[in-house]
Amino acid sequence: MPDRDALLLFLATGLALNLTPGPDMLYVAARSASEGRGAGVASALGIAAGTLVHIALVAFGLAALLAAVPVAYTIVRLAGAAYLVYLGVRALWRPSALAERALAPASRWAVFRQGVVTNVLNPKVALFFLAFLPQFVDPARGSAALQVLALGLLFDTSGTIVNLAVALGASGAAGRLRRSARAAQLLERATGALFVALGVRLALAGRR
C-alpha cells in the first residue's frame, strides 16, 4: 500500500470521482426508480461485482490488451452498448404499469446479473483503472499487483456505498410517483429511454 499521505489523497480522489454522476450511478438510479429499492440495491451490488473484474484485469495486466488492440476494445464497447439498448427497448415495450402489477417482479438475482454484465462490458472502466490505480502504487512497498487489488477494493467499496445511497434515495422519491398508475408508466418508459441513451452514448464514445 502507498504511504499515509498518498493513501489519503487516493481516498479523497476516489470519493470525489464516485460522487460524480456517471453511467453506473444513472443505471442504479433508473433501476431503483422503476423497480424499487431492492432492484436498486441489487444493481449497485452487481456493478460492484463487475468492478472487481476490471480491477483484476488491471492487476494482472489484461486490461492493457484493450488499450493496445483497438479491435478488442471496439468489440467489448459495442457489446456493452447493445446490452444496454436491449434492456432499454425491453423496458419500453413491456406491458403498462397497470398490467405489470399482475406480473412477478424480476428476481433480484437477475437484476444483479444485469448490473454485472452492464459494468463488465464497459471497457472504459478497465481503461480508467489502468490509468488511475498505478499512479498510487509504490514499487518499494511490495507487489504492484497486490497494491492495485487493494486500492481497487477501496475504490470499489467507496463507489458501492455511494451507489447504495443513490438506490435508497431514488427508490424513496419514486415510490410516491408509483402510487399513480400513469406516473408509474411514464417512469418505466423514461427508464427504458435512459438505458437506450446510455447504450448509444457508449457506442459512440470511442476512446475519448
Summarize the structure.
Helix content is 81%, strand content 0%. The protein has 10 helices and no strands.
What brief labels describe this structure?
single chain; 208 residues; mainly alpha; 10 helices; 81% helix; 0% strand; globular
Give structural notes:
This protein is mainly α and 208 residues long. The chain has one domain. Helix content is 81%, strand content 0%. It contains 10 helices and no strands. Helix 2 runs parallel beside helix 9 and helix 2 packs antiparallel against helix 10. The protein is globular, with a radius of gyration of 18 Å. The two termini are 30 Å apart. About 4% of the residues have low confidence. GO terms for molecular function: amino acid transmembrane transporter activity. Its main location: membrane. Keywords: Cell membrane, Membrane, Transmembrane, Transmembrane helix.
What's the structural blueprint in terms of helices and strands?
Layout: H1 4-19, H2 23-35, H3 37-59, H4 63-68, H5 70-93, H6 97-100, H7 108-120, H8 123-132, H9 144-177, H10 181-205
Helix pairs in contact: 1-9, 2-3, 2-9, 2-10, 3-7, 3-8, 3-9, 5-10
Indicate the low-confidence ranges by residue numbers. 96-104
CA distance, first residue to last residue:
30 Å
Radius of gyration, in Å, reads: 18 Å
Mean pLDDT: 79
Q: Give the H and E element order.
A: HHHHHHHHHH
Domain tally = 1
What is the helix fraction of residues, given as a range?
over 70%
What would you call the structural class? mainly alpha
Number of helices: 10
- Beta-strand share of residues: under 5%
Oligomer designation = single chain
Per DSSP E runs of 2 or more residues, the count of β-strands stands at: 0
> What overall geometry do the principal axes of the alpha carbons give?
globular
**Main sheet makeup:** none
